[in-house]
Amino acid sequence: MKYVYEPLDKVPGAIRVLALQPAPHLDAPIQGSLEPVTHRTFPYIAISYVWGNPTITNWISLAGYEHGVGSNVFNVLRSVRSKSRTLFLWIDAICINQENIQERNTQVQNMANIYRNASEVIGWLGNKTLDFDAGFCLLKILIAGSSHQYLEDKAYETSWDALVRLLDRPYWTRVWILQETAINLRVSLRFADDQESEITVKNLSE
């Protein structure tokens, strides 16, 4: 049976968060529930990502009911969930009733506050590719400030190509990324489901 949204209370700051249940492995079924809270007081993680094709390709369980999601949303959820604890997430495609135009408009107008008040923002940039490790390794080297020798070393040419592809992902072209990641000091950028493949944004400006 399909999940049916309950109306949000008409309280300033009211949002839904996804209580995402833990799973022992990546391919375990995705289960959770939607909880009404206020973004001003309830701690949650806001997700910044690319919607991609919104066509329903996968199903998750919300309070025991089926809910269809697109492939990018599905990959985000399976990648960020914990193995041991429930995570409270705000992710627009699920936490906003997309079929309710009035609610959707109201929530979109409030998105700056939603991202600002999040206890953390995770920017999910997509899955790994075959040359991901080379590009990501070089990126960390550049962040550390050790760039000159790598600019001149021809042995790193393939790593530079991999880095260019890493930085050419659709995520970086989104207009909303500035709002979602610039107004919160606790932002991390994550690739795939590996927390080791994560960059804390404040490190980019140090």
Verbal overview:
This protein has about 210 residues and is of the alpha/beta class. The chain has two domains: about 15-125 and about 175-190, no CATH class; about 130-170, no CATH class. The protein has eight helices and nine strands. The chain has helices spanning about 70-80, 90-95, 100-110, 110-115, 130-145, 150, 155-165, 175-180, and strands spanning about 15-20, 30-40, 45-50, 60, 65-70, 85-90, 120-125, 185-190, 200. Strands 5-4-2-1-6-3-7-8-9 form a nine-stranded mixed β-sheet. Strand 8 and strand 9 (about 200) form a beta hairpin. The longest helix has 12 residues, at about 130-145. The N and C termini lie far apart (about 50 Å). The relative contact order is 0.16.
List keywords for this structure.
nine-stranded mixed β-sheet, 8 helices, 30% helix
Write the layout of secondary structure elements.
Elements: E1 14-20, E2 31-38, E3 45-48, E4 58-62, E5 65-69, H1 71-80, E6 87-90, H2 92-95, H3 101-109, H4 111-116, E7 120-124, H5 132-143, H6 148-152, H7 157-166, H8 177-182, E8 187-190, E9 198-200
Helix pairs in contact: 5-7
From the N-terminal CA to the C-terminal CA, the straight-line distance is 50 Å
Number of domains: 2
State the secondary-structure class.
alpha/beta
Whole-number radius of gyration?
18 Å
Share in helix: 25-40%
Q: Which spans of ≥5 residues are poorly predicted at pLDDT below 50?
A: none
- Individual helix count: 8
Mean pLDDT: 86
The portion of residues forming beta strands comes to 15-25%
Number of strand segments? 9
Q: How would you characterize the largest beta sheet?
A: 9 strands, mixed
Order of helices and strands: EEEEEHEHHHEHHHHEE
* Order of neighbouring strands in the sheet with most strands: 5-4-2-1-6-3-7-8-9
Overall spatial form: globular
